[in-house]
């Protein structure tokens, strides 16, 4: 189950943090590490700080976009030092741990961490179902990256141990993977552009609101298929605006 939990580090700029994050993960039994467009390479400093966790570093995957890192994940939770960067569903660390452990029983899940200097940008935050913020000292709330990884992996582990001790609930409904949702949003945007509801170069905040709404609902796979079918049916009746 813990093998279904992926830690995603976006744009990390200190190689030592990559090593410390790997160590934090391994102590909690988590080993799937993915780097998105890292600014630092895995080097001697990473290996030194990973202590005995160089196997986690060795298995690291590197991709260029967050969407690639989470494409096969059913649940994506983004860690943010600021509690309300966007108006998005928020969970605390404990709730994040429970959600991740629960869904990792039969699907891939991811926790996403941002850059040391600027965190995650809005486009990245919008790819997450939930945001998690560790309610630290409001006057000094930004944790070191690897320490944030440690705290949240600990919460996943605690929730996982809890699940092992209790009777497992029914498996959660099958939710679509992030890449299926992304295709749905693109289809939706195209259809409402073709209908004339938005004008592609000036879409305003419509898609952000739509994403937020569907995030809140968390459609199941079957529901997503129905929505795609409805859009396709509507598409046939839309006369495309003149280019
Ligand atoms: N200066 C950045 C903070 C970067 S810290 C900013 O203002 O956003 C690097 C990463 O560690 C963050 O992007 C986040 O993923 C994680 N992190 C740090 N402090 C956190 C906190 N209090 N709660 C949740 N995640 C945190």
UniProtKB/TrEMBL annotation:
Mind telling me which InterPro entries this protein's record contains? Alpha/beta_knot_MTases (IPR029028), RNA_MeTrfase_TrmJ/LasT (IPR004384), SpoU_MeTrfase (IPR001537), tRNA_m1G_MTases_N (IPR029026)
Principal subcellular localisation of the protein = cytoplasm
Signal sequence, renumbered to the chain: none
Domain of life assignment: Bacteria
The UniProt record lists the keyword Glycosyltransferase: no
EC assignment: the record states 2.1.1.200
Q: Name the Gene3D superfamilies for this protein.
A: 1.10.8.590, 3.40.1280.10
Entry keyword annotation includes Cytoplasm: yes
For this UniProt entry, the molecular function terms from Gene Ontology, in alphabetical order, are: tRNA (cytidine(32)/uridine(32)-2'-O)-methyltransferase activity
User: For this protein, what reaction is catalysed?
Assistant: uridine(32) in tRNA + S-adenosyl-L-methionine = 2'-O-methyluridine(32) in tRNA + S-adenosyl-L-homocysteine + H(+); cytidine(32) in tRNA + S-adenosyl-L-methionine = 2'-O-methylcytidine(32) in tRNA + S-adenosyl-L-homocysteine + H(+)
Quote the subcellular location field of this record: Cytoplasm
- Set out the biological process GO terms recorded for this chain's protein: methylation
Which keywords accompany this UniProt record? Answer: Cytoplasm, Methyltransferase, S-adenosyl-L-methionine, Transferase, tRNA processing
User: Which family does this protein fall into?
Assistant: Belongs to the class IV-like SAM-binding methyltransferase superfamily. RNA methyltransferase TrmH family.
Subunit: Homodimer.
Known function = Catalyzes the formation of 2'O-methylated cytidine (Cm32) or 2'O-methylated uridine (Um32) at position 32 in tRNA.
Q: What is this protein called?
A: tRNA (cytidine/uridine-2'-O-)-methyltransferase TrmJ
User: What is the species of this protein?
Assistant: Agarivorans aestuarii
This protein's gene is called trmJ
